[in-house]
UniProtKB/TrEMBL annotation, chain A:
Residue ranges of every copy of the Glucose-methanol-choline oxidoreductase C-terminal domain listed in the record: 415-534
GO molecular function, one term: flavin adenine dinucleotide binding
Keywords: FAD, Flavoprotein, Oxidoreductase
Region: Disordered, residue numbers: 1-22, 79-106
PANTHER family documented for this protein: PYRANOSE 2-OXIDASE
Residue ranges of the TM segments: none
Cofactor(s) required, per the database record: FAD
Compositionally biased spans, kind Basic and acidic residues: 79-97
Pfam families assigned: GMC_oxred_C (PF05199), GMC_oxred_N (PF00732)
Gene3D superfamilies, A to Z: FAD/NAD(P)-binding domain
Domain Glucose-methanol-choline oxidoreductase N-terminal: 106-329
Organism: Natrinema altunense (strain JCM 12890 / CGMCC 1.3731 / AJ2)
Protein name (database record): Lycopene beta and epsilon cyclase
Automatic annotation (TrEMBL), chain B:
This protein's name: Gluconate 2-dehydrogenase subunit 3 family protein
Pfam families with a match to the protein in the record: Gluconate_2-dh3
Superkingdom assignment: Archaea
InterPro entries per the UniProt record, alphabetical: Gluconate_2DH_su3 (IPR027056), TAT_signal (IPR006311)
Protein's organism: Natrinema altunense (strain JCM 12890 / CGMCC 1.3731 / AJ2)
Length: 549, 172
């Protein structure tokens, strides 16, 4: 017999304390962060023959532990950050805004980044999302248009492996089918469909970065139902795919190597100083640097790297590093029917509606509607709580499971200068650095739009004949865990941090590949756009003559 | 509803304990483990915490335990939890937990506080019994196809039951 996996309590990072974590000599490019952006950039640059080193603050996880992590996801003894070995000291932060921001529920740190725990929904932004100021009269215009990003979107869909269909009449134009067919609609989708037909609300498929058939050497989805926060089968894309592919092409990954600061002159970065588990500090030099640490750690690293040249933080001549922190806000409504709804068989969505998205203007934010396949309790999770067992427990499970039905929605938050990621010098992390301060402020437009989303959701559920039992409205709303906007992209160096080529205005050898460059967020899950921009950033690095030190 | 070999394999898989269910494995720790005592205690506890319409408990629990034995940390926690149950049973009934009637076993589980404790593998005795005995058994059952079907869900969370069932209606 072969017992080759550890139970929940024994899942370990797989990190090797004795691994060689010394700098790579003669590196062409240093990529900071091993999430989807960093992984894709590293893969592209390694493919082109560049000597690439990736510095990742978190560990490399053992793929054999994924089922044990799934057990953590199900058992109440483990909090969500425990699934991917969250470390309260390493990951310390302060939330100071008008709304609390649960940062460590919103990210996973390690090789793969937050795609380790993401849902896996991958839509393209709509054309108007790139021209919000011009078309909607609010927000900012991107310095690029949908047409500029369109080929990168197509490439990103191939890179991630997207299962989708051409049945969404509201989606922006596309040239090729998705790489895989969409997942078929669920039984509960069919219940919604009757009500939506009556109300003339169109439903369509959801593009998923999840294999509906074998793709790229990974299996088709086998239905574990714990997509968020862990897919044991590997059918859901995560960035270990690209990090490992980059390694096969010669890139070097140094894990558990948090970058402490970027050493620089007035025009270029010279080295990344990183810490290792043995307490040493190392200095990784390179000709070019790509910062790919997400919407929180990217601005934090720049702010930590202040100097006499950049007293307010590196690449921060505009004063906007950390400003315009955005997320998508959730709106939801659910209830119960007097018939089975067949929830919690899978952990992903199969139907949405983008019908109302392009009604957006100065008063109404863009939003999308989601039709849940996992509303109400999961019986196995329910069974592990409560003070009953035996027949009483089974009776409770049968009573509480089976008739729930619900809807969600994501709503755009406008960029606001008073919503920011800064440094809190009163609290330090495990290396003595000030922790990130999340000051999240959302504004009225998004809250008023949430009311509109709730109204539509109520109409659909009323048409279904559901008894509404819960609603997340403007008071109870929270973030969708999409960190955006903190190093915004623009043409004007006084009003943005990076240019349309993703290079910082201030430093000639520093690019940023992250949702932090989004000038506005739209209401689509951001990872496909992150991937598209990462591919674009890689092209710009390659077209730049190096070395430039 | 009978628990089957398929359920045992599914439970092991859901818990990250892939195996063939053949043979017997001793944990790699240096201390010998009385696996018979652990198995008898878990089977006895399952008779309390599993619903009465479930049959085939003994081979299901035995197979599930066999997977758990691969991890010395888990075994140590389970041994402590079993000792806690046996200790309480001896005080109140002058016998080990597995030798008691089902009603007396239930009372022992309540005596140690496992009924209203939150599971915690490193917590108080009540929380450890809840984690290593009560909830481990419930997790194995309700993440299995038969456990799911008891509730009306053929593909419960944790079971790789494919992507067919979510598309089917209740009468399919």
């Amino acid at each position: 017999m072969s017992w080759d996996r550890a139970p929940a309590g024994s899942a370990e990072s797989g990190a090797d304390d004795d691994a060689d974590r010394t700098p790579v000599a003669n590196a062409d490019v240093c990529v900071i962060g091993a999430g989807p952006a960093g992984g894709i950039v590293a893969d592209r640059l390694a493919e082109a023959g560049r000597e690439v080193v990736i510095l990742e603050a978190g560990p490399r996880f053992d793929p054999d532990d994924r089922l044990a992590r799934q057990e953590r996801a199900i058992r109440p003894a483990y909090d969500r950050p425990d699934v991917w070995d969250g470390d309260p000291e390493r990951d310390a932060y302060e939330s100071t805004g008008e709304r609390p921001y649960p940062l460590n529920h919103a990210r996973a740190r390690g090789v793969g980044g937050s795609t380790l725990h993401w849902q896996g929904m991958v839509m393209r932004l709509h054309e108007d999302d790139f021209d919000s100021a011009s078309v909607r009269g609010v927000g900012a215009d991107w310095p690029i248009d949908y047409a500029d990003l369109r080929p990168y979107y197509a490439a990103a869909e191939r890179e991630l492996g997207v299962a989708g269909a051409a049945d969404n009449p509201f989606a922006p134009p596309r040239e090729h089918p998705h790489p895989m067919p969409a997942f078929p609609p669920s039984y509960s989708d069919s219940l919604f469909a009757a009500a939506c037909d009556e109300l003339e609300i169109a439903m369509h498929s959801v593009p998923n970065a999840r294999n509906s058939e074998g793709y790229d050497g990974r299996s088709a989805c086998v239905g574990y139902g714990t997509c968020q926060p862990v897919c044991p089968s590997g059918a859901k894309y995560d960035a270990t795919v690209h990090v490992e592919r980059a390694e096969r092409k010669g890139a070097t990954v140094i894990d558990r190597a948090p970058v402490q600061r970027l050493v620089h002159g007035p025009d270029a970065i010279e080295a990344a100083v990183y810490a290792t588990p043995d307490g040493d500090r190392h200095r990784q030099s390179a000709d070019a640097f790509v910062i790919a640490c997400g919407g929180v750690e990217t601005p934090r690293l720049l702010l930590l790297s202040e100097s006499s040249h950049y007293p307010d933080g590196l690449a921060n001549s505009s004063g906007l590093v950390g400003r315009y922190f955005m997320d998508h806000l959730f709106a939801g409504t659910g209830g119960v029917l007097d018939e089975p709804t067949r929830q919690n068989h899978v952990g992903f969505l199969t139907s949405e509606s983008h019908q109302f998205y392009d009604e957006a203007d100065a008063e109404q934010a863009p939003f999308k509607l989601e039709f849940f396949n996992y509303d109400g309790p999961s019986p196995v999770e329910l069974a592990l709580t409560g003070d009953d067992w035996g027949d009483d427990l089974l009776a409770r499970l049968r009573s509480d499971y089976g008739t729930h039905i619900g809807m969600g929605g994501l709503v755009e938050q406008l960029p606001r200068e008073d919503s920011y990621v800064g440094l809190d010098p009163s609290t330090t992390d495990d290396h003595g650095n000030p922790v990130p301060e999340i000051h999240w402020s959302v504004g009225d437009r998004v809250l008023e739009t949430i009311e509109r989303v709730n109204e539509i959701q109520e109409r659909i559920l009323d048409e279904l004949g559901a008894e509404i039992t819960w609603q997340v409205g403007p008071e109870g709303t929270g973030p969708a865990y999409h960190h955006m906007g903190t190093t915004r992209m623009g043409d004007d160096p006084t009003a943005s941090v990076v240019g349309p080529d993703l290079r910082t205005h201030d430093l000639e050898n520093c690019w940023i590949a992250s949702s932090s460059v989004f000038p506005t967020g739209g209401a689509m899950n951001p990872t496909l756009t992150i991937a598209a921009l990462a591919l674009k950033a890689a092209d710009h690095v390659l077209e730049t003559e190096l070395p430039i030190r | 509803m009978e628990l089957t070999r398929r359920d045992a394999v599914a439970a092991l898989s859901a818990l990250g304990l892939g195996g063939t269910l053949a043979g017997c494995v001793a944990p790699p720790g240096s201390e010998p483990v009385d696996t018979d005592r652990l198995r008898e205690t878990l089977v006895a506890a399952a008779a309390v915490v599993y619903p009465s319409e479930v049959s085939g408990i003994e081979p299901f629990v035995a197979a599930f335990l066999e997977g758990r034995l691969a991890d010395p940390t888990h075994v140590a926690g389970l041994e402590e939890a079993v000792a806690e149950l046996d200790g309480n049973a001896r005080v109140w009934y002058d016998a080990e937990f597995a030798a008691l009637s089902v009603a007396d076993r239930e009372q022992v589980l309540r005596n140690v506080g496992a009924d209203d404790a939150d599971e915690d593998p490193s917590g108080m005795a009540s929380e450890r019994v809840r984690y290593y005995v009560v909830n481990d058994l419930l997790l194995a059952l309700y993440a299995s196809p038969t456990g799911g079907e008891l509730v009306g869900l053929e593909n419960p969370q944790g079971h790789a039951g494919g992507i067919g069932t979510y598309q089917r209606g209740p009468n399919a």
